[in-house]
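Reply to dn_fold:

You asked what the input looked like. This is it:
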Amino acid sequence: MTVHSKSKQRGITFFGLVFVGVVLAVCGVVAAQVFPTLVEYQAISKAANKAAEGNSVVEIRAIFDRAQAIDDFKAISGRDLEITKEGDKVVVKFAYEREIHLTGPAWLTLKYAGRSK
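and this is what came back:
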């Protein structure tokens, strides 16, 4: 019988800890840049729902533009909306892209699309 006086160590090495820290920091930076675009998408979606209450295309675009001025989003305006009618209900659709520069030649492209309820 042999007795081992050394117990097997478990855990993360210093370099492993640094690597995990760097990965978490990069993810945090990207998330901090993506979060405002999600808030902007919610504001645009809310404005599209409000604009769908209008009766004419001109009125719908004007309602959307007023909501844009209040919520201060710049990704799209009233003239970028696709306005259709499904049955007797007005449907306001929108689509746009946001690009976030990561580093060097790397970009993150976010494609947002939505429609009124």
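The first helix runs from residue 14 to 51.
Hope that clears it up.
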